[in-house]
Automatic annotation (TrEMBL):
It comes from Natrialba asiatica (strain ATCC 700177 / DSM 12278 / JCM 9576 / FERM P-10747 / NBRC 102637 / 172P1). Belongs to the glycosyl hydrolase 3 family. This is Beta-glucosidase. Residues 22-47 are annotated as: Disordered. InterPro entries: Actin-crosslinking (IPR008999), BXL (IPR044993), CBM6 (IPR005084), Cellulose-bd_IV (IPR006584), Fn3-like (IPR026891), Galactose-bd-like_sf (IPR008979), GH (IPR017853), Glyco_hydro_3_C (IPR002772). GO terms for biological process: arabinan catabolic process; xylan catabolic process. Coiled coil: none annotated. GO terms for molecular function: alpha-L-arabinofuranosidase activity; carbohydrate binding; xylan 1,4-beta-xylosidase activity. SMART domains: CBD_IV, Fn3_like.
Length: 982
């Protein structure tokens, strides 16, 4: 917990004052000849003793230098250079060739923690190998995994998370971090940091979004995604997210200390880091502090230990931290605390070891992409594949290897990288995987997209491209030369297309305004440089380059993205040289079956910095599926995406649909394994697939109980439910047993067991899922909560018993009336099945918890702990810049407290309120409803500052009774902090 002195410091910073600190001066000058602290002499002192020695020898300036992402060497105390932040979400990213595993959402879809631990182990090996091969240039602190909940599929970074459920995500994340850290009893192979803490599920305005999360959901939903890997000791900290939560930027949230460090086992190092450039937002877009010194000090005092800003140049950060120290906003003990966290993690990574004693020093460049990692990548891609649909008396899947197969679609011959991907050593496309399995003579293929030529209308000349590997500037040519004037046109969203030149197989991009066919694949930050929009102009077409927001013009025969509007743009006529959809239909017609691979590009439509507006399959791809299925009744769709896709039209036309994430280098082989039935698909969805984005609330609405999001709160009529996934086999569930028969008591464990039998004809995996629902409660409970799961492999006729244990405390929830976790006395329905909506067996568990007593408001009660509120009319805000949450009230807004005990006949109520603006607000206390009888009211004048609170009393009339529901109603704007009855 944050000490009182640190709370005082935070309050002082927020108020813009300075504190004189008893330990605020420089330490004595350090003897430059002091011995370093490495284990050259077999030093076996505990980490904390060695780190205390280092801290005693460091100057304040040196300590400040260790609070930046790039930390310099300090030779005289034995510290090497160190940097935080190697990206390792599903393989080593951005550092050259490395094994590329499926996206995190694909890994999550395996529902297989043991597999994720093996993947994490492989990734950890490759991080360490790159570290050793680069002489330490590659950092061993990894920023992975991302454990943000997949609350809304429109989130641009949906592919980075595992699940919409905290238990599933927690088990998978813990397994992955266990693999990353290695199996040595003392030292870590890598040091994982969890991203992004907390309430971060939208990209648009991500630095200024206020995620409003009421206490119950904070403790029961959002925090549990991060807790398991920290509690297990396998993650060493969190990355503070960009956004605000309840009015306070996460970069300065006290939860960094009060939650994260509270979870960690005793003696476990926790090093919290900022996201890139987030500290600068505190005085920038967020306008939360009026000086950088106060901002950085507040972050350190809140529990942040490492600043990620200004790239490799740490000078600005160091200067600001020293300025905060000199101003009295930080004491040297505060620097020692943060630096101690950093050094402890460095010690876990072998900082004080001789190289020969480092258990991971033998890893080398030979361990990057080694054969067993390639095999594991294929297994992971295969196990995360989900069979969404396989209807009919004779389903299309699995395919017979005796058949001829048409393999078509814009994703059938491409394997794309996402933003956090490494460079794969090779890429196996679906077409290649099927060809290698069936033989080239049995394959018919077509991309299924048009090949076009672009004729500039005013001159009649055709656009031509360069033939070399590096391409060339696109220009006009009067003569027809198809080899350099043909472009493959792919639609990725309603308004994003790519042009790939057949002259050299490269994508058209823009360099210094000039169009050039040089890109290996669409890539780049924010909006990819290879995306174009086709805009109708006078019966022709103008091209808008989406990244630059400029239209393509012709300048001296060269195509340049330089025009500001369509009127200044060149107008082209599109001439179709090859009708792609018809070519795909011809291929399908000539084959015994067709596989159409469609989906989304991982960097278009939605990605980091941009949320997606819809979930629809692009119109051209939908038309491709329709046309192929018209001519070939045995058509299967392979859908590749980073998020749930709106499939209603497609689902109605085909009998078989297989889903995969962007699954890395082994995509084609893994999909082929599933398509032909070498393995039965065993993946399961980890988030609810809505029928369309139109059914979803605003992406910034974080109160999932209020908006009915995720399977927990009954997302209405989903296309596919959480946990959904079919098999080539069938499974029977029977012999459900729940023990103990008596009510479960504190400290006890209930066991739910069920017998599962493979009643089909093929070996297959089944994911057995156990859910519960509390029947009666004082408060709103989720409709279902996942309590456990197990993926089992069974041969035909084989049976096994799956047992899930549920501890008494697992039934606890956050009680806002007493601000603690409680277990109510209640009966819980038990549902066991193959998904959240495919229940095969039901039972019940009685839990001998407590009855929550009537609410006592005789002590000051936080407004944010109300039972209900007019959610659309209020805002959850920061009580101060340092700590606390209040309710921002508007005219006519209300909040309510249920089951209030009024038997003591209170005669007065006091509300603590702040009002920044001039004028007054009236606060009323009513009974029964927002328009019920008035028990009392008080007038609140301006307090002059949003953080200046005053108590205002009101006399009460006709207040006695039991189990009353009281409503606090505001007639104007104010910040309501507490209410107290006397």
């Amino acid at each position: 917990m944050v000490s009182q002195i640190r709370r005082d410091l935070l309050a002082a910073i927020g108020a813009g004052t300075s504190l004189a600190l008893s330990d605020g001066g420089e330490r004595d000058e350090i003897d430059e000849d002091d011995d370093d602290l490495t284990d050259n002499d077999g030093d076996e002192r505990p980490f904390d003793e060695r780190i205390d020695d280092v801290l005693d020898r460091l100057t304040v300036e040196e300590k400040a230098s260790l609070l930046h992402q790039y930390q310099p060497p300090i030779d005289r105390v034995g510290l090497d250079a160190f940097r935080t932040g190697t990206e390792a979400l599903h393989g080593v990213a951005w550092l050259g060739e490395a094994t590329v595993f499926p996206q995190a959402i694909g890994l999550g879809s395996t529902w297989n923690p043991a597999l994720l631990e093996r993947v994490g182990d492989a990734v950890g090996d490759e991080v360490r190998a790159k570290h050793e091969a680069s002489a330490g240039g590659v950092g061993r602190n990894v920023w992975a995994p991302t454990v943000d909940p997949l609350r809304d599929p429109r989130w641009g970074r949906n592919e980075e998370g595992y699940a919409e459920d905290p238990l599933l995500s927690g088990e998978l994340a813990t397994a992955y971090t266990d693999g990353l850290t290695g199996d040595h009893p003392t030292y870590h192979k890598t040091a994982p940091i969890l991203k992004h803490f907390l309430g971060y599920n939208n990209e648009t305005d991500r630095t200024t979004t206020n995620a409003e999360i009421p206490p119950r959901l904070l403790h029961d939903y959002y925090l549990p995604f991060f807790r398991p890997p920290i509690e297990a000791g396998s993650a060493v900290g969190v990355m503070a997210s960009y956004n605000l939560v309840n009015g306070r930027p996460m970069t300065v949230s006290p939860l960094l200390d009060e939650a994260v460090r509270e979870w960690a086992p005793d003696g476990t190092a926790i090093m919290n880091v900022s996201d890139a450039w987030a500290p600068a937002n505190l005085t920038g877009e967020q306008e939360y502090f009026d000086s950088d010194e106060r901002a950085r000090a507040a972050a350190v005092l809140a529990g942040l230990d490492s600043f990620t800003e200004f790239g490799a140049d740490s000078s600005t950060t160091v200067d600001v931290i020293l300025g905060a120290f000199e101003a009295g906003y930080l004491g040297e003990n505060d620097l020692d605390t943060a630096v101690g966290h950093v050094l402890t993690v460095r010690a876990l990574l072998g900082e004080f070891l001789e190289p020969a004693a480092d258990p991971y020093a033998a890893l080398s460049a030979d361990d990057i992409g080694r054969p067993e990692h390639r095999t594991l990548a294929r297994e992971a891609a295969r196990d995360g594949t989900v069979l969404l649909k396989n209807d009919g008396s004779t389903p299309v899947l699995p395919l017979s290897t005796d058949d001829t197969v048409a393999v078509v679609g814009p994703l059938s011959d491409r394997v794309f990288d996402d933003w956090y991907s490494g460079t794969p050593p090779y890429r196996i496309t679906l077409r290649e995987g099927v060809r290698d399995r069936f033989g080239a003579e049995q394959i018919h293929s077509a991309v299924g997209v048009d090949r076009i030529a672009l004729r500039e209308r005013s001159s009649g000349a055709l656009v031509s491209a360069g033939v070399g590997k590096g391409g060339g500037g696109l220009g006009l040519q009067e003569t027809d030369a198809p080899s350099v004037q043909s472009f493959e046109l792919v639609q990725w969203t309603a308004d994003s297309w790519t042009l790939r030149a057949t002259a050299n197989g490269r994508y058209v991009t823009v360099e210094d305004e000039q169009l050039i066919n040089a890109a290996d694949q669409p890539a780049g930050w924010d909006v990819v440089g290879e995306a174009f929009e086709f805009v109708s102009v006078d019966g022709g077409t103008a091209l808008r380059h989406r990244r630059s927001d400029r239209f393509v013009a012709v300048d001296d025969g060269t195509l340049r993205a330089s025009a500001e509007n369509p009127a200044a743009a060149a107008v082209f006529d599109l001439e179709v040289r090859t009708a792609g959809i018809e070519a795909a239909a011809d291929a399908a017609r000539a084959a015994d079956a067709a596989v159409v691979m469609v989906g989304t590009h991982p960097l278009m439509g939605g990605r980091e910095t941009r949320d997606r507006e819809d979930l629809a399959l692009p119109p051209a791809q939908r038309e491709l599926v329709e046309r192929v299925s018209d001519v070939q009744s045995r058509t299967a769709v392979v859908l590749q995406s980073s998020y749930p896709v709106h499939l209603n039209e497609v689902e109605a036309r085909v009998s078989s649909i297989l889903w995969t994430s962007h699954a890395g280098q082994e995509t084609g082989r893994a999909l082929t394994d599933v398509l032909v039935g070498d393995v039965s698909p065993g993946g399961r969805l980890t988030q609810t697939w809505p029928r369309s984005a139109d059914r979803l609330p605003d992406v910034t609405e974080y109160n999932i109980a209020e908006t009915g999001m995720t399977y927990r709160y009954g997302q209405d009529d989903p296309l596919y439910a959480f946990g959904h996934g079919l098999s080539y086999s069938t499974f029977a569930y029977d012999d459900l047993r729940i023990t103990p028969k008596r009510p479960l008591s504190p400290g006890g464990t209930a066991t739910v067991s069920v017998r599962v039998t493979n009643t089909g004809s093929v070996d297959a995996d089944e994911v057995v899922q156990v859910y519960t629902r509390q029947h009666r409660s004082r408060t709103l409970q989720p409709e279902r909560v996942l309590r456990g799961f197990e993926r089992v492999h069974l041969a035909p006729g084989e049976r096994t018993t799956v047992a899930v244990e549920i501890d008494f405390e697992a039934f606890s929830f956050w009680d806002v009336t007493r601000r603690k976790r409680v277990v109510e006395r209640a009966t819980h329905a038990v549902f066991v099945g193959s998904s959240s909506d495919d229940i095969r067996a039901e039972g019940s568990i009685r839990v001998d918890g407590e009855t929550i007593p009537p609410r006592d408001l005789s002590d000051a009660t936080r407004a944010v702990d109300a039972d209900d509120w007019s959610w659309a009319d209020i805002e959850l805000l920061d009580r101060t810049r340092a700590a606390g949450t209040v309710v921002g009230m508007t005219d006519g807004s209300w909040l309510s407290f249920a089951n209030v005990d009024l038997r003591d006949e209170p005669t007065e109520a006091t509300v603590e309120v702040a009002r920044e603006d001039p004028g007054t607000t009236t606060v009323e206390l009513r009974r029964g409803s927002p328009s019920g009888p008035v028990l009392g009211r008080t007038t609140v004048p301006s307090t002059g500052d949003r953080y200046e609170y005053e108590d205002h009393a009101m006399s009460l009339h006709n207040a006695p009774g039991t189990d009353r529901e009281l409503y606090v109603v505001s007639r104007g704007e104010c910040r309501l902090s507490t209410i107290e009855l006397a």
